[in-house]
């Protein structure tokens, strides 16, 4: 995470930590959920805290909160990339072919020349097999 993201998450933590004891308790989470209009039981809040804290202590430290959020953001980003990859991989064989890439881009309103398409594949296709696997797709998406 960037320094700015960490700074923003620390502010979120401060808002959640209403009694300023350096921890987010089950009751603080439940109060926040109630104020946001969500009907969440104390038991559900306790399970969440236990999942993040990995114990039944009943609270989450700032360090644990930041680590969980970093992990959550990473998973969220991975899931978005997987969804995008699967949208292009029409035949679901684990690869994006030249034709699938062209069709996907055209569906998105991108009309590209054959030369541009070949250039995109050449850039992404690290193992030079003429198609793009998930790892290659992720690498290109993360470097752009």
Automatic annotation (TrEMBL):
A Pfam family assignment: EF-hand_7
InterPro entries linked to this entry: CALM/Myosin/TropC-like (IPR050230), EF-hand-dom_pair (IPR011992), EF_Hand_1_Ca_BS (IPR018247), EF_hand_dom (IPR002048)
GO terms under cellular component: myosin II complex
MF terms in GO: calcium ion binding
Keyword DNA-binding: no
Keyword Glycosyltransferase set for record: no
Keywords: Calcium, Repeat
SUPFAM superfamilies found in the cross-reference section: EF-hand
Boundaries of every EF-hand domain copy: 4-39, 76-111, 112-144
SMART domains assigned to the protein according to its UniProt record, in alphabetical order: EFh (SM00054)
The protein's name: Calmodulin isoform X2
The species this protein was found in: Lingula anatina
Gene that specifies this protein: LOC106178777
